Amino acid sequence: MWARLASLLLLFFGLTHQGSAQRVPPPALRIQCHVSSAEWSDRQPGAAWLVSLRTADGKVLEEVVVPAQSNPQLLDLGSRRSGTYIVAAYFDANGNRKLDRGVFSNPVEPYAFSNNARNRFSEPDLADQRFTHPGDLQKLVLKPAF
C-alpha cells in the first residue's frame, strides 16, 4: 500500500511541476520596408506593405498585408524558429492588393527581395535571397522596376 501511495505522490508531483522550466519563445522576425519619398507621397488611401515569407526553397509560409503607416516601417512577422528564410515584399501604393504591372508586364509598384537581391528581367536566384534568422534586421529598400 505504501508503495502505491508513494508512486501516486511521485506521479502527482511530477505532473504538477513539469512546466516549471521556462520555455524561451522563438525570436521575432522583423523586416523594415522603405520606399522613396515620391512613392510615399503618391500613395492613396488603403496603401499597404504586402509581404511574403518563404522557406529557403521558395515555398510560401505566410503572406501578410500591413497598412502603410510610416516610411520606413518596421513589420513584425511574428515569432519564428531559427532557420533560413526568404522575404518578398512590395508597396501597394494604390491599395488594390495586387502588384500592378506595366505594358511589358514589368512591375510599376516598388518591390524587393530579402538581401535586396535584384535581377534585371526576373526574380533573383533563391541563393541570393536567403538569410538566416535569428540575425540582423532585414532592411528592404523597395524599388520599382524599369
What percent of the residues sit in helical stretches (DSSP H or I)?
A: 10-25%
Q: What is the radius of gyration?
A: 23 Å
Order of SSEs: HEHEEEEEHEE
Spatial separation of the terminal alpha carbons: 83 Å
Task: Explain what this protein looks like in three dimensions.
The protein is α+β, with helices and mostly antiparallel strands. The chain has one domain (26-141). The protein has three helices and eight strands. The chain has helices spanning 2-16, 37-41, 126-129, and strands spanning 28-34, 48-55, 60-67, 73-79, 83-92, 111-113, 131-133, 138-141. Strands 2, 3, 5, 6 and 7 form a five-stranded antiparallel sheet that branches. It has a three-stranded mixed sheet with strand order 4-1-8, with no helix packed on it. Strand 2 (48-55) and strand 3 (60-67) form a beta hairpin.
Q: Could you write a compact summary of the structure shown?
A:
The chain has 146 residues and is an alpha+beta fold. It is built from 3 helices and 8 strands; from the N terminus they run H-E-H-E-E-E-E-E-H-E-E.
What is the secondary structure topology, with strand pairs?
Layout: H1 2-16, E1 28-34, H2 37-41, E2 48-55, E3 60-67, E4 73-79, E5 83-92, E6 111-113, H3 126-129, E7 131-133, E8 138-141
Parallel strand pairs: 1-8
Antiparallel strand pairs: 1-4, 2-3, 2-5, 5-6, 5-7
Notable features of this structure?
single chain; 16% helix; 8 strands; alpha+beta; 146 residues
